């Protein structure tokens, strides 16, 4: 599944969260580190949901970048 992930710059690097997976967050010093940590966090979050018998939400947020003049 592809979930939208929001990344935010912070004073010490970046933070990220997944709107469709409340509580699934990560933070790192670089954007690439934060991406890798977020992927691991999402895998662990979804694995825990499956183990607990919770329904896995379908992705409902979509993100795109549009260039404007």
Order of helices and strands: EEEH
Structural class: alpha+beta
What coarse outline follows from CA principal-axis ratios?
flat
CA-based gyration radius: 13 Å
Helix fraction by DSSP (H/I, runs of at least 4): 25-40%
Give the rounded overall mean pLDDT: 96
C-alpha end-to-end distance: 33 Å
Spatial strand sequence of the major β-sheet: 1-2-3
| Number of beta strands | 3
Largest sheet: 3 strands, antiparallel
How much of the sequence lies in strands comes to 15-25%
Low-confidence stretches: none
What is the overall number of helices?
Answer: 1
Give a description of the structure.
The longest helix has 22 residues, at 31-52. The chain is flat and about 45 Å long. It starts with 5 loop residues before the first strand and ends in a 17-residue tail after the last helix. The model has no long low-confidence stretch (mean pLDDT 96). Strands 1-2-3 form a three-stranded antiparallel sheet, with helices on one face. It is built from one helix and three strands; from the N terminus they run βββα. The chain is 32% helix and 17% strand. It has one helix spanning 31-52, and strands spanning 6-9, 14-17, 25-28. It is an alpha+beta fold and 69 residues long. The protein has a domain at 6-52.
């Amino acid at each position: 599944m592809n979930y939208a992930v929001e990344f935010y710059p912070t004073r010490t690097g970046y933070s990220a969260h997944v709107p469709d997976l409340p509580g699934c967050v990560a933070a790192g010093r670089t954007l690439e580190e934060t991406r890798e940590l977020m992927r691991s966090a999402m895998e662990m979050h979804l694995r825990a949901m499956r183990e607990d018998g919770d329904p896995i939400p379908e992705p409902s947020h979509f993100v795109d970048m549009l260039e404007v003049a």
